From TrEMBL:
This is Extracellular calcium-sensing receptor-like. The lineage of its organism: Eukaryota, Metazoa, Chordata, Craniata, Vertebrata. It comes from the Eukaryota. It holds the Pfam family 7tm_3. It is found in: Cell membrane. It comes from Maylandia zebra. Belongs to the G-protein coupled receptor 3 family. The chain crosses the membrane at residues 475-499, 514-535, 547-570, 591-609, 637-658, 670-690, 702-726.
Length: 740
């Protein structure tokens, strides 16, 4: 601190022309002494401050560097905060001090325990340790530190076995290690907090070799070693603190009255010959925190003076006098770099948290060295804060990471089941139940298998289910599509034959207009079956069912019309009958259109209210997903089929009644056979459709369409084509009208 202040006083850029004074108090690590000193400089308007070169001057306290411990810092902050006196601590790490409502004027250059706890939790999780014991002191530092530690463990999903004992501070750790060194005990892997893990005084305990932990970043302060070694005897004599240090280091006394058998210090003692932590500047950690604290206050004063100059230019002198409040305000905004180290504070008064991961490694000579093996930088993005860049030597000189678990990790396919009456890191591994998996080790609970995938035999992998539908690449799809095209081609060829011979008696005798309309509807029936093949989509689902329903009704309506024509024709032969006048071509067309319009109306209502839509059937098979069309409204679907069945049954009854009429070529017989096939196909279709799984439901539907369509064209038109093409002698009016 003295070095930093003298460096600032000799700086021509920072606070030029202004000298900082200081007064150093020894609180003796006592809270009561800290409180006493805080009240002392609050109640004294004019304190005497050292300004260097054995000079002193009176003034008011503008800022405080300290305290070292968390508990004294808490007490001091509560006293001086109401007076807006900024307090910058170089080593108080309690997370509680980040609370600006309770400690509004507190700042620190050392990271909060919250960051250290997060770093330790990530370190422990990195090495998969779950059986951990924690040692703490019964103080604000210890209690808040362990609370932050446990909170970080829960945040990073690390299981913590809570074994607490009294100690964490350096003072208590020395006592603990001293006791442990007296009697042999099983090897333990120690994880140190920053409060003791970089303390060279503890390296004498051999059982601590292999210790790892996070310490304050090691630093270099140019000129500091020379400043320490240039300490003169005259400087020592006027400073109680330096007097105590000098007497202890050289085992002498400066004042002859206090000699008590000791030799008197005469000034010839050479500080450069000392081999103590005082002269060792290779491990400057907390010293750099003090250095940064002093510079932070200096920068705040510098900025406050600049604001004061501007303010006093406009306002009277009493209103612009500098105060600790101005320094407190500017301290929140400081942001500078010194010797390569950045200094700034967040809204909680905390600096950016940077720790070194240190490892206590034994050399060949048996000396324990504190070696930096990694870094933790809380300012880096999530997942990149923690780095290990050197090999770690563990307890007993091992290079293998120690295992610290109550129970081993449960393998994939199993989950943890806690052992009754034991800590939460003690468990058994149980296989996942059916329908659940665990794809990583150490799972607390198994995951339900997604409906779109199934698990393998090891219960550790969710395998995506293949999607199945009747495609044009399937053998069944190719066969059915081929028959659909063949049927359509056959119908077109039949139409061409009928057109070519449209004036022949056999074509004219069977109502050529209805015959051509029937052939067109049959072509559409064959082609509509193709819409059932391929991946279902919203349009294909709606098209396939409605097109099928309308074209089939059109087809059956034509057959029904032809059947009625046959009956009416024979009724017209009776003497005095004029029945054909009431069922001529216009009435026939109206009949077909009326029957078809009813089906169009049914389909329209179905599409408007609840149309078919594509779905992924996840329940039909465990190992695959069926892509199919949902009916939307089952009532609509069965209404369409029911209407087709009703017309077919009516047509079948009329055809049966007309089958024995005495023409040589009675079309009613052909219609009877076609309707018999049609009804047989669709009666067997219903149970087959309901019971067929997956894509075979579509196969059954296409098969029924094709079978009934082929039945109609083969029964009604094949005999006529045979006569037209191969028996032209029978294609005469005389033969057609003659009786059997």
């Amino acid at each position: 601190m003295v070095f930093a202040i003298e460096e600032i006083n000799n700086n021509t850029e920072l606070l030029p022309g202004i000298r900082l004074g200081y007064q150093i108090y020894d609180s003796c690590a006592s809270v009561s002494m800290t409180v006493h000193l805080a009240f002392q400089f609050l109640n004294s308007l004019d304190l005497v401050f050292h300004t260097g070169k054995n000079c002193s001057q009176s003034g008011m306290v503008m800022a405080v560097v300290g305290e070292s411990g968390s508990t004294p810092s808490i007490s001091m902050s509560r006293i001086i905060s109401p007076f807006n006196i900024p307090q910058v601590s170089p080593s108080a790490t309690c997370t509680c001090l980040s609370n600006k409502q309770q400690y509004p004027s507190f700042f620190r250059t050392i990271p909060s325990d919250q960051f250290q706890a997060a770093a330790l939790a990530k370190l422990i999780k990195h090495f998969d340790w779950t059986w951990i014991g924690a040692v703490r002191s019964d103080s604000d530092y210890g209690n808040n530190g362990i609370a932050s530690f446990l909170e970080a463990f829960h945040l990073f999903n690390v299981i913590f076995h809570d074994v607490m004992r009294q100690s964490k501070k350096l003072f208590y750790m020395k006592i603990l290690f001293e006791e442990l060194s007296r009697e042999p005990f099983p090897p333990r892997q120690w994880i140190g907090s920053e409060s003791w893990v970089t303390n060279p005084g503890l390296r004498k305990y051999s059982f601590l070799a292999g210790t790892i932990g996070f310490g304050i970043q090691k630093s270099v302060i140019p000129g500091f070693r020379n400043f320490l070694l240039n300490l003169s005897f005259a400087q020592v004599a006027v400073s109680p603190l330096l007097t105590e240090f000098w007497e202890d280091s050289f085992n002498c006394t400066i004042k002859e009255s206090n000699s008590a058998g000791k030799k008197v210090c005469n000034g010839t003692e050479d500080i450069k010959t000392l081999q103590t932590p005082y002269t060792d500047t290779s491990q400057l950690r907390i010293s750099n925190m003090v250095y940064k604290a002093v510079y932070a206050i200096a920068h705040a004063i510098h900025n406050a003076l600049f604001v004061q100059i501007l303010f006093c230019f406009f306002f009277p002198l009493p209103l612009c006098l500098n105060s600790s409040l101005q320094i407190l305000t500017e301290l929140k905004k400081v942001n500078f770099s010194r010797n390569g180290y950045d200094v700034s504070f967040d809204t909680n008064g905390d600096p950016v948290a940077i720790y070194e991961l240190v490892n206590w490694q034994k050399t060949m000579a048996g000396i324990t060295d504190i070696v930096t093996v990694g870094l933790y930088d809380a300012s880096l993005p999530e997942g990149q804060e923690f780095q290990i860049n050197k090999n770690i030597i563990w307890m007993e000189g091992s290079t293998k990471v120690p295992v610290s678990v109550c129970s081993g990790s449960c393998p994939p396919g199993t989950r943890k089941v806690l052992q009754k009456g034991k800590p939460i890191c003690c468990y058994d591994c149980t296989a996942c139940p059916e329908g659940e998996i665990s794809n990583t080790t150490g799972k607390v609970k198994c995951l339900s298998v997604h409906v779109k995938c199934f698990y393998d035999a090891n219960l550790d992998t969710c395998i995506p289910k293949p999607i199945e539908f009747l495609s044009f690449q399937d053998i069944l799809g190719i066969i059915l599509a081929t028959f659909s095209v063949l049927g359509a081609c056959l119908t077109i060829i039949t139409t061409a034959i009928f057109l070519r011979h449209r004036t022949s008696p056999i074509v004219r005798a069977n109502n050529s207009e209805l015959s051509f309309l029937l052939l067109i509807s049959l072509t559409l029936c064959f082609l509509c079956s193709i819409t059932f093949i391929g991946a279902p989509s919203e349009w294909s689902c709606m098209l396939r069912h409605t097109a099928f329903g309308i074209t089939f009704v059109l087809c059956i309506s034509c057959v029904l019309g032809k059947t009625i024509v046959v009956l009416m024709a024979f009724k017209a032969r009776l003497p005095g009958s004029n029945v054909m006048k009431w069922f001529g071509p216009p009435q026939q067309r109206m009949t077909v259109m009326s029957f078809t319009f009813i089906q169009v109306l049914i389909c329209t209502i179905w599409l408007v209210l609840s149309p078919p839509f594509p779905i992924k059937n996840l329940t039909a098979y465990k190992e695959k997903i069926i892509l199919e069309c949902a009916l939307g409204s089952a009532v609509g679907f069965w209404a369409v089929l029911g209407y087709i069945g009703l017309l077919a049954a009516f047509c079948f009854v009329l055809a049966v009644l007309a089958r024995k009429l005495p023409d040589n070529f009675n079309e009613a017989k052909l219609i009877t056979f076609s309707m018999l096939i049609f009804c047989a196909v669709w009666i067997t279709f219903i149970p087959a459709y309901v019971s067929s799984p997956g894509k075979f439901t579509v196969v059954v539907e296409i098969f029924a369409i094709l079978a009934s369509s082929f039945g109609l064209i083969m029964c009604i038109f094949a005999p006529k084509c045979f006569i037209i093409l191969f028996k032209p002698e029978k294609n005469t009016k005389k033969h057609v009208l003659s009786k059997n």
